[in-house]
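Quick check before the chapter quiz. The format below is the same one you will see on the exam, so make sure you can read both the input and the output lines.
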Amino acid sequence: MKKRLAKHSLGALALAVAVLSAAGCSAKSNANQTEPSSTSGASGDNSQQEVTVKLGRVVGSDNKFKNGETIEDNVHTRWAKEKFGIDFKVDWSVGTGEAYTTKLRLLMNSNGDLPDVFTLNDPTLENQVVDSGKVMDVTEAFDKYASPRLKELYAKYPEIWNTVSYEGKHYGLPTFNAISSFSVLWIRQDWLDKLGLQVPKTIEDMDKVMDAFVNQDPDGNGKKDTIGLSLSLKKGVSTVKDTFMVSSDFLFGHSAVPTYWTEGADGKLQYGSVQPTMKQGLAKLSEWMKKGYLDKDAGAMDESKAAESFVQGKSGMVFGPTWMPTFPFNADMKFDYIPVPVPAGIDGQIGFGSEPQSSVRFYFNKDFKHMDVLFQYLDAIMGPGLYDPSSEFANGWAEGYDYVMVDGKPVYDSDKIPGGFVDVKKYTIYGNDIQAPKKELEVMAKLGRGEAPETPYENYFAARPKKWAEAAAVLDTYLDQAAVFDKFTGPPTPTMAEKGELLRKMENEIFLKIIYGQESPDAFDSFVNKWKSSGGDQITKEVNEWYESVNQ
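Here is the expected output.
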C-alpha cells in the first residue's frame, strides 16, 4: 500500500465541495505517459487537436442555466472548446457533493472507469484511489506544462504538496484556500468610549475590559444583562477547523492551538490540546465563566447562536473572520463596533488556528495524455483567483451572465443582466474560483486602508461592506505572525482512525467540565495522562513517522 500524505479537510470548507465539479480529459490511447497535444500555447488555437473531456459532475440546485444551456453545453464549455479545443462531455452527474463522493467510491469498488480529471476532499477515498494505481504521478507533467506563475505559486508554498504526496511522488494537484479572513476581534467602540477604556492588547487587558462590560452597565439600561465575550463551545475548545466563527483558540496564543499538530522545540509534532499552555487557558476560561464574562449557555451554542449576543447588542466582543459584516452582522446593528487586532494569548503571543492551505485536490486518470492542454486551461481559469487584471475573466466569467458592461464598466446587479445573474464559475471543472493564498486579503486590505479601487477586482470588492474591508486591513498587519497551520496534513493514522473520535470526545468533556467549574484545572493533568495511555502516545508516534517521511 502506498503511504498516503494527504489532508483531512476543514469542516466548514468541506461544505463548499458540494458545489464543486469534477472533470477529466479522455485519452484515445491507453499509454501511461503524458504526451503533448498539438497546441499553439496557452493562448489557445482553433486549429489545435480536439480533446474530449469526460466529466463526472455535481449539478445541484444552485446550478442555474439560461438560453437553453446545460452543464454540458454552456457559455463556458463553448469558450473552452474555442480556446483550447476541449470538448466537455458529461458521463454522469449527481445532485450533491456527498453523492459525488459516493459515486466515485462505487466506481472504485466495482473497478469502474474513473473520470480523467476529478476533485476530492475525502482522505480515505483518496487513499483508495491512489492505491488502485488508476491515477498518475503529476510531477513530470507539472514540471513540463505548468505555467511560470503556477510554478511560482506552488514554489512559494511547498508544504502544500504534502497533501498529495505518496512515497515521494505527487499523485494529484492540490488547490489552495484563500487564507484571507481569519481572524480579528470585533469590539464595541461605543462601550469602550463610554467607560473610558482602551482596546485590549493582552489577556490581562481583556480581563479589565470584560469586567467593565459586565459590571458597569455599558448599555445604560440599569440592568446587569451584558456579557464580555460571545463564544461557542458546542464543539469544545476549537479552531476554525471545527468552529467557523466565535471560537476560542486565540486565548491560547501561538504555542498551543487546540486540536492542531505543531512543531515543538525538538522539531517533532505535538498535539496542541495536551500542551501545558492549554491548562492555563482553560483556567482562564473557567474564571471568565464564573465571573459572568461568558454566556452560561456557550457550551450548547453553535456559531450562529453564540454570535447573537453580539448582534443583539448584549455582548462587547466576538472573535471571528473579517467577513462577519455579511453574516451574522446586519444593518439593524445601530451601534459603533470596530475590528481590532487579536490580543496576545495566554503565552504572550498572538496566535490562532488557520484554515489549511488546501482542502480540495485534483486527481488525474493515469491514461490521460493531454496534461499540456489541461494546464493551459487551469492557468486561464485561475486568473480570477490570482487577481490578474489582464485575465479575460477580470470583469467576470461571461458577459451577459454574471455581469454586463454599462458605460464601459462592469455591472453585477442581477436585475440589470438580461435573464438575471448566472454563476458561470460553477460550469468550470472546479466549480468555483481557484484561489491563491492571501490575494483576496491584499485587495480587501487596500480598500480598507482607504485607497481607491483601480482594477476590476478592486472595483468588484468595493461593493462589499466597508467594515469587511476595514477588518481585512487590520488582519493584514499581523496574519503572517499569528496564523498557525496544522502541520499534520495526512489522513487519519491507524490509531487515530480507531481511537481518535473517542479521544476527542474525552477531550471535549473534560475541557467543558473545567470551564464550567465542575472540575478544577488540575483535572487537565489527569486528562493528559489518560489521553497518552489511551492511544495518544501511539498516535503521536504515527504522526511523527509520517512527518519524518515528508521531510526526508
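If your answer matched, good. Residues 3-35, 38-43 have pLDDT under 50 and may be disordered.
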